[in-house]
Write a structure and sequence with these properties.
The complex is a heterodimer. Chain A is mainly alpha-helical. Chain A has seven helices and no strands. By secondary structure, chain B is of the alpha+beta class. In chain B, a hairpin with a 2-residue loop joins strand 9 and strand 10. In chain B, helix 3 crosses helix 5, helix 6 packs antiparallel against helix 7 and helix 7 packs across helix 10. Classes of the chains: A mainly alpha, B alpha+beta.
Chain lengths: 187, 406
């Protein structure tokens, strides 16, 4: 189990150059792992205060860690109750959103504001969408754990209701300039 | 309260860092050439051929020749076989570009591309001479016949039978929704050779020539999109043992391997279609004024556009990543359904949004949006419906619920 205190997340306020992307990815991976695996009776500090590099990405990593945690809960419930197709599809949808949002996160570049905004948006939406789906999956045995994860999830989602900041940032980059926004080039 | 709720049971690929996507200089250059092909050859011809299921022969020949000149022909086919050798990722990049035009490779039977159905790479040397190389030269067309009236998503349930007669195989059955089935010179046809084994060693793939007695084209099936897949019947259609593709009994595995690749090509089609819709949408929103303000300044619309952009970028990253992993020989059973279904759903959402925000103009034939809308719908059904992809994902996560094929 990874501890947030030992995770060596960079505190440097400077944004990394592209050559430092590997270090950034690793740091985000640690935040995600902590959110995914940390014991629920120890609340980690908000990720935006832990990774000064790119707060929106740190928050996104934290949210995706929680999403993975919800997925694991849902998976356990589906297996335990031998769930039918409808619940299995709910589980698949959570996994789909998580996979897509993780791609956005780990492909984001701090020097590309649109990629950061879209990663933040993807993570926020993946977590928000996972909550009601996993709610429909968990059994009574898992309820306390689900409630604890949900509490954390709601706390991070409340910090930016509806993801409005990321939405507006992305929209501004896409719509408030005359030239075509280059979302086609992702690598 | 302990953490790590059964995390060990989640697929590693949902936990570990996703690999970075790395395009070679050659792949980047091919993407640029594909963009030129789109802008110089496809987009200018769109109004000329608004509603065709295939282009006039002379136009198609010109486009194919131009694609060859630009090094875009047969991109995923290895160089030693006569292709461009750009890998599956290179093919995805090219297809994504040409699919931005309604004259591009939106439909399976369009000639631009040149890559055969991947099953044909299993051909023997003699089969390569007769089928693969002529296909790569553009002299012969092919189809891939798996789907049947009683076996779409449940492909292991095909009813077409192939019986050994001592000197060859006799095929009987019916296939439908077969792209290019009406125009192809040969096809790969899947039939049951051992009903007791079916998908586990009882399905075989055969190459069937158009001239073979017993092959009958029944009709082209009208669809809401531009494609007109065929219905075909095989009645006492006799093929020699030399026309078995791969090994007897291994046809289902071959079909699955083929679909893994073609599903990613289809995801690339979806990316291109969505990109076109998105590119039409942004300038329209800046230009269109309602109640004294451009649509681009309205919050609800801005949020929709931002979410569409995230949707498109995520699907693109998933698709590129899977293509790259296929090229690297990585097992992508988990990722293919994810990319395929995500890209297909995304394209439907983005095209629908672009149409909606264009108002009445969106449904008119003054713009290509209505055509994109009709063409893209089938992507959530063909080559593995959304529901099959979800089931494959759920199976990877939580084990099998009930047998589901392909």
């Amino acid at each position: 189990m990874t501890s947030m205190a030992n995770s060596s997340i960079p505190m440097d306020a400077e944004r990394p150059a592209p050559r430092d992307l590997a270090a950034l990815r690793a740091a985000l991976g640690r935040i995600e792992a902590v959110a995914r695996e940390e014991a629920l009776d120890r609340a980690p500090p908000p990720p935006s205060e832990q990774a000064g590099l790119v707060p929106d990405l740190a928050t996104a990593a934290y949210q995706l860690g929680l999403t993975a945690r919800l997925l694991a809960l849902g998976r356990r419930a589906v297996v335990a109750r031998r769930a039918g197709q409808a619940r299995r599809f709910l589980l698949a949808e959570v996994a789909l959103d998580l996979a897509a949002a993780r791609r956005l996160l780990y492909a984001a570049r701090p020097d590309d504001a649109l990629s950061v905004a879209l990663a933040a948006l993807g993570a926020r939406d993946a977590l928000a969408a996972a909550l009601p789906r996993v709610l429909d999956l968990v059994t009574a045995d898992e309820w306390a754990v689900f409630a604890a994860v949900r509490e954390r999830a709601e706390a991070t989602l409340r910090a930016d209701l509806a993801g409005g900041r990321a939405l507006e940032a992305a929209a501004a980059l896409l719509l408030d300039q005359d030239e075509r926004a280059a979302i086609e080039e992702v690598c | 309260m302990a953490g790590a709720e059964s995390l060990d049971a989640l697929p590693a690929r949902l936990i570990e860092l996703p690999p970075s996507i790395e395009l070679s200089a050659e792949q980047r250059a091919a993407r640029e050439r594909a963009r030129r092909f789109l802008q110089e050859e496809l987009l200018p011809r769109e109004r000329q051929f608004p509603e065709c299921d295939h282009l006039p022969a002379e136009v198609e020949e010109h486009l194919n020749a131009r694609a060859r000149e630009l090094g875009l022909w047969a991109p995923a086919t290895p160089r030693e076989l006569g292709g461009a050798g750009l890998g599956v990722l290179g093919a995805v990049l090219i297809k994504e570009q040409v699919a931005q035009s309604v004259l591009g490779d939106v439909r399976q039977d369009r000639g631009i591309g040149g890559d055969p159905w991947p099953a044909l790479f299993q051909a023997t040397d003699e089969q390569k001479q007769r089928y693969l190389y002529p296909h790569l030269r553009g002299e012969k067309r092919m189809f891939f016949a798996l789907t049947e009236p009683a076996a779409g998503s449940d492909a292991a349930n095909i009813q077409t039978r192939a019986e050994w007669e001592g000197r060859g195989w006799r095929i009987n059955g019916r296939k439908h929704f077969i792209g290019a089935g009406g125009r192809a010179d040969f096809g790969v046809v899947f039939a049951v050779t051992d009903p007791g084994k079916r998908a586990r060693g009882g399905i075989t793939c055969f190459i069937v020539d158009r001239e073979t007695p017993g092959w009958r084209w029944v009709r082209d099936i009208e669809t809401m999109g531009a494609c007109r897949p065929a219905e075909l019947v095989f009645e006492d259609c006799r093929v020699p043992p030399s026309n078995v593709l791969g090994e007897v009994g291994q046809g289902f595995v071959l079909a699955q391997q083929t679909l893994s690749i073609t599903r990613i090509r289809q995801a690339a089609l979806c990316l291109g279609t969505a990109q076109r819709a998105f590119d039409l949408l942004l300038p329209w929103l800046r230009r269109r004024v309602t109640f004294g303000r451009p649509l681009a300044q309205r919050e609800a619309i801005r949020w929709l556009v931002a979410r569409a952009a995230a949707d498109l970028r995520a699907a693109r990253l998933l698709t590129y990543s899977v293509a790259q992993q296929i090229d690297r020989g990585v097992d992508v059973r988990w990722e293919v359904p994810t990319a395929k279904t995500r890209a297909a759903q995304m394209a439907g959402r983005v095209v629908d949004l672009a149409m909606q925000l264009h108002g009445a103009l969106g449904v008119s034939r003054d713009l290509p949006l209505e055509r994109l809308y009709r063409d893209i719908r089938s992507m959530r059904i063909t080559e593995g419906a959304d529901e099959i992809q979800r089931d494959l994902i759920a199976r990877e996560l939580a084990g099998r619920e009930e047998p589901v094929s392909a």
